[in-house]
Design brief:
Elements: E1 2-5, E2 8-11, H1 18-25, E3 35-38, E4 41-43, E5 53-58, H2 63-84, E6 89-90, E7 95-96, E8 99-105, H3 115-127, E9 133-138, H4 139-148, H5 152-159, E10 166-172, E11 175-178, E12 192-202, E13 211-220, H6 223-238, H7 241-247, E14 251-252, E15 263-264, H8 266-285, E16 289-290, E17 296-298, H9 299-305, H10 307-311, E18 317-318, E19 329-331, H11 336-343, E20 348-349, E21 355-364, E22 380-390, H12 395-413, E23 420-425, H13 438-455, E24 459-463, E25 472-478, E26 484-493, H14 496-499, E27 504-505, E28 511-512, E29 515-524, H15 525-536, E30 549-553, H16 559-571, E31 576-579, H17 585-594, E32 599-603, H18 605-610, E33 612-617, E34 622-627, H19 628-641
Parallel strand pairs: 1-5, 16-21, 20-27, 23-24, 30-31, 30-32
Antiparallel strand pairs: 1-2, 3-4, 3-5, 6-8, 7-8, 8-13, 9-10, 10-11, 12-13, 14-15, 17-19, 18-19, 21-22, 22-29, 23-25, 25-26, 26-29, 27-28, 32-33, 33-34
The structure holds one RNA strand.
Length: 645
RNA sequence: GCCAAUAUAGCUCAGUUGGUAGAGCAGCGGUUUCGUAAACCGCAGGUCAAGGGUUCGAGUCCCUUUAUUGGCUCCA
């Protein structure tokens, strides 16, 4: 039998394993091989092979290798937990990005204080050098084994597998766990792990099922790598917008106003204002017109749109929703049906299309109390919303236009490189959620697929993530905790125009329903601001900074000159603050740096006399002494060019 | 909504087995007018998140509520 590895073939005995070969031929690197791919299938290193094959070892450098490594660590965790809590029932324990978790059903949920003891038990088990041993059983025997071990969750998992499935287990000492594998050849590879947090998690992700106790952890091949990672996480959390945004006085919250209802302070408001003006101008340059529609409407409107049926729980309702004899209003959770009324204002011709209706739109969504997160998930927010009412033949061009706009906006903000793409499709099985016929859905999804493939972005398909009226392109971004959220969405809707009786007269004189694209250009301002804070750690590019320049005087003799300079900046619509306090200049600079202000203009006696300033950047570097006019021009250029400095 | 953690001055945090609240920074008033990472002196600042309970006595123990945080679920 021949095994080929790294392009070289070796003659080996039939039934021997990749591990046997690698151990001999690549002894030096052998410890870094966690498993092998045999003809593309990830397999245990020492699994017997019975025919010629191409094998590729996987290491921690490979995604697959990381997965094997961390999955084995999750098993180490479950072994330790069973040792300390013999009554714990095992659920599942996969590897995830940057680590792993394991879900347990225990009488009392784990507490943070329990983790050190579990880690200690894991460490001891790790040192006993257990070799995970794989064996398989037919389905009925597998169920019997798990029943004997009193593992109801495992039984349920097996019962969901097909009748004829062969089911694999891994044994490590007395410990047996249902598992597809593969695993590390020896658990003593797991020299550097850490249990990071505890959380509740529903069995099978279903909120109607039991809540289990989840332990998260991470592990690396060496202590050094583990510490580097933990340090990196620590650093990332220092950029947390929720902490920084408050420290920098961008926003605050108060109990008495309520959850998910942030107060934007002057500096935060300034940034929102800069963004909004820029977005509206940008849209105008691309043929958008804007509307201003009400923040609430009678329930009747939402009944037509379908929101009353689909999302009533998510709306703030004013009045008794169940009393049909009285007026009942709801704050709007979206703008669609409001803007459609603008289209319906008079009869429309095919020549009127595309009609690009934009609105800087404040929305209200009654999110569950546990959902709120800083500025990322709030109950009242403002979105750069638009509905493009178009003819079918305009779909491709207009969709591209929306994509390009999103690209241009996010690139200017410096966020584009951090984004990923998700093509959110419907699930025909989930009949409760979606409206429209399979034909309509196929048409919309097919159209979007063609456009996305043509644009050439790398997207991931997400089933059952569509809006109830159509498929979406979601532009996703991760926050400092690694949690992904949608920043921008572009949706194709072939359904709602008909429901609202929207028609245009085509060239052939026929009345037709338009298509509609729902989209945002900068997304939700609150969320985008949150991501910007985290991206720049509060040190915004000059064009976005709420205070672009701080003018610092060395003595009060320079106050008049400072005032003059401030007025010159104001005259150019630039944003500056004056610090005339009687403090040492070093102290003032330090304070401006802590406020992350991009530039400091220092004026002492020498400068005041010549009408010059010494410019310092936020790092404190001296950029030289220049005339007032030049200093103002420098900031003006950074501002107008939207430079990411 | 569910699982868990947290809540003391504007901010960062002390506060012992229950004995009636403390520091630094910020603020205010003085002094200092100074050339690059925290000048000096003084003053003021708190219903210890809110409400209830146990106790002779609660920041501390118990319960409820609110908010914040990390997950889960949800996310038009």
């Amino acid at each position: 039998m021949k095994l080929t590895v790294f392009g070289k073939s070796y003659e080996v005995e039939k039934g021997s394993s990749a591990g046997d070969l690698l151990k001999n031929e690549f002894a030096e690197d052998f410890k870094s091989y966690y498993a092998v791919k045999i003809e593309g299938t990830l397999t245990d290193l020492f699994a017997p092979i019975d025919k010629d094959a191409e094998i590729t070892p996987v290491t921690f450098q490979d995604e697959d290798g990381k997965k094997v490594f961390r999955h084995s660590c999750s098993h180490l965790l479950s072994m330790a937990v069973l040792q300390l809590y013999p009554d714990a029932k095992l659920a599942i324990g996969p590897a995830i990005e940057n680590g792993f978790y394991y879900d347990f059903d225990v009488e009392t949920p784990f507490k943070p204080d329990d983790l050190p003891a579990i880690e200690k038990a894991m460490d001891k088990l790790m040192r006993s050098s257990l070799r995970p041993k794989r064996f398989t059983l037919p389905r009925s025997e597998a169920i019997a084994l798990m029943k004997e071990k009193n593992e109801p969750y495992k039984v349920e998992l097996i019962e969901d597998l097909p009748e004829d499935a062969t089911i694999s287990f891994y044994q490590m000492g007395d410990f047996v766990d249902l598992c597809a594998g593969p695993h590390l050849p020896n658990l003593n590879y797991l020299k550097a792990f850490k249990l990071t947090q505890i959380a509740g998690a529903y069995w099978r992700g279903d909120e109607n099922k039991k809540m289990l106790s989840r332990i998260y952890g991470t592990c690396f091949p060496s202590k050094q790598e583990l510490n580097d990672y933990l340090e990196m996480v620590e650093e990332a959390r220092k950029r947390d917008h929720n902490k920084l945004g408050r420290e920098l006085e961008l926003f605050t919250t108060v109990d008495i106003i309520g959850q998910g209802l942030p107060i934007f302070l002057p500096k935060g408001t300034r940034i929102l204002q800069i963004l909004q003006r820029w977005v509206e101008d940008t849209e105008m340059k691309r043929g958008y017109v804007h509307t201003k529609t009400p923040l609430l409407a009678k329930r009747d409107l939402y009944k037509i749109s379908g929101h009353w049926d689909h999302y009533r729980d998510g709306m703030f309702i004013i009045g008794d929703p169940d009393d049909e004899t009285k007026e009942c209003f709801a704050l709007r959770p979206m703008t669609c049906p409001f803007q459609y009324q603008a289209f319906l204002n008079r009869s429309r011709s095919y020549r009127d299309l595309p009609m690009r209706l934009g609105e800087t739109s404040t929305l209200f969504r009654n999110e569950d109390s546990g959902e709120m997160h800083g500025l990322i998930r709030v109950r009242q927010f403002t979105i750069s919303e638009a509905h493009l009412i178009i003819r079918p033949d305009q779909l491709e061009e207009e969709f591209r236009g929306c994509f390009n706009l999103a690209h241009d906006i996010l690139s200017t903000l410096g966020l584009w490189e951090d984004c990923s793409f998700q093509f959110s499709q419907w699930d025909p099985q989930n009949t409760k959620k979606y409206e429209g016929t399979p034909e309509q859905w196929d048409a919309a999804q097919q159209a979007m697929k063609i456009i996305l493939d043509d644009i050439g972005i790398d997207y991931k398909v997400a089933k059952d993530e569509a809006a109830f009226y159509g498929p979406k392109l979601d532009i996703q971004i991760k926050n400092v905790f690694g949690k992904e959220d949608t920043l921008i969405t572009v949706q194709i809707d072939l359904l709602l125009a008909k429901k609202f009786g929207m028609e245009y007269t085509d060239a052939d004189g026929q009345k037709k329903n338009p298509y509609i694209i729902h989209r945002t250009s900068i997304g939700c301002y609150e969320r985008t601001l949150a991501l910007l804070i985290e991206k720049y750690a509060g040190a915004f590019p000059t064009w976005l900074a709420p205070v672009q320049v701080k003018i610092l005087t060395i003595t009060n003799r320079s106050d008049d000159a400072a005032g003059e300079l401030q007025q010159m900046l104001w005259d150019q619509n630039l944003r500056c603050e004056l610090d005339l306090r009687n403090e040492k200049i070093g102290f003032k600079i330090r304070e401006a740096q802590m406020q992350k202000i991009p530039y400091m203009f220092v004026i002492g006696d020498r400068e005041a006399e010549n009408k010059t300033v010494t410019i310092r950047n936020r790092k404190g570097d001296n950029l030289g002494t220049v005339p007032f006019g030049d200093a103002v021009a420098m900031i003006k250029k950074l501002n107008d060019d939207k430079t990411i400095d």
